[in-house]
Design a protein that fits this description.
By secondary structure, the protein is mainly alpha-helical. It has a domain of 175 residues: MetI-like fold, CATH 1.10.3720. The chain contains 13 helices and 2 strands. A two-stranded antiparallel ribbon has the order 1-2.
């Protein structure tokens, strides 16, 4: 075995061991704990039961999942509405400006999203930057309630997840054949008709990849509703965190985690099937 093959096998083995011990084993433990009973002292005991999954259909739990889907759907629509024009703009500017703008998109990843969320708290609190500017400009007489509202939660989710929408959209739009756009104009189509008939259909893989990359994480970002919504906005992520850290009901929290994982696998499978049906490349 030469040096190249030895390095290749070593690198693959290390990655496989990492995935096995830090991805597969923890997820199998979550599945196993979701199938046993709760214990007030040791959090769970090895007595098989399906009661944790039956509890997922309680009205309160169902309401949490419905709220999570609502928050995630609105967040996905808002990020798409902001991210699509920006991604299109990136493809129309010079290479120098494009690099600068892409750098601005990537810079937030250099810091923790938790720290960035705390920065939003400083901006939106009663005596924060936004209220101070509104009062100084005479637009309001007193502080406006922004923090601990649904608006603050949506701002935090969109701000944190916007790059996940922009980057796959840019990857698709950057490869778009602009000759097709010119051909549509030559045939008499206006800008709206060209967008609906040419640009949008060809950018569907990027739209779907961006929607999945925003929708799924937004259901689990528990710290954003906690810090910006004052824990009044309960998402699945908050619900699971509370079961593990507050209620001490590890089996029920594990069952909710398994349900969320299955939902993610289901959505990704639909995306892959649609991409296969239309014979498009997968962007994730």
């Amino acid at each position: 075995m030469n040096e190249t093959k030895r390095f290749k096998h070593t690198a693959i083995s290390v990655n496989m061991l990492w995935i096995f011990f830090f991805v597969l084993v923890p997820n199998l433990m979550v599945v196993a704990i979701s199938l046993v009973e709760r214990d007030p002292v040791s959090f769970f005991r090895w007595v098989p039961t399906l009661s944790n999954y039956r509890s997922l259909f309680d009205p309160i739990t169902v309401k949490v999942f419905v709220n999570s889907v609502e928050y995630s759907t609105v967040t996905t629509i808002l990020t798409l509405a902001v991210g699509y024009p920006f991604a299109w703009f990136l493809t129309r500017v010079s290479a120098h400006r494009r690099s600068l703008l892409l750098m601005m998109v990537m810079v937030p990843f250099w810091t923790s999203s938790l720290i960035r969320t705390y920065a939003l708290v400083i901006l939106m609190k009663a005596n924060g930057v936004i209220n101070s500017m509104l009062i100084a400009l005479g637009m309001v007489e007193g502080p406006v309630s922004i923090l601990y509202t649904d608006v603050a939660v949506y701002v935090g989710l969109v701000y944190s997840l916007l790059p996940f929408m922009i980057l796959p959209l840019y990857a698709v739009l950057e490869k778009l054949d602009h000759g097709l756009i010119e051909a549509a104009h030559d045939l008499g189509a206006n800008n709206f008709q060209t967008f609906m008939g040419v640009v949008l259909p060809l950018s569907i893989p990027g739209v779907m990849a961006g929607c999945i990359m925003v929708f799924l994480p937004s259901m689990g970002l528990f710290y954003i509703p906690d810090l910006l919504g004052g824990a009044k906005s309960m998402l699945v992520g908050n619900f699971i965190k509370n079961q593990f850290l507050t209620a001490g009901n590890w089996p029920f929290g594990s069952a909710a985690s398994v349900f969320l994982i299955v939902a993610m696998i289901f959505m990704i499978s639909i995306y892959l099937l649609i991409m296969k049906r239309f014979n498009r490349s997968v962007i994730l």
